[in-house]
Amino acid sequence: MNDATFIPLVGGCTCEKVRFRIDVEPIITHCCHCYQCQKFSGSAFRVNSMIEAEHVVVTKGTPKSFEGKDNQKVMQCRDCGTTLWSYHAKLGEVIVFVGMGVLDAEHRLQPEAHYFARSKQPWVVPPPGVPVFEEGGDPGKPTAGPRIMAALAKAGGGRSISDYTGEPAAS
Question: Looking at the whole model, is its pTM more than 0.70?
Answer without folding.
Answer: yes
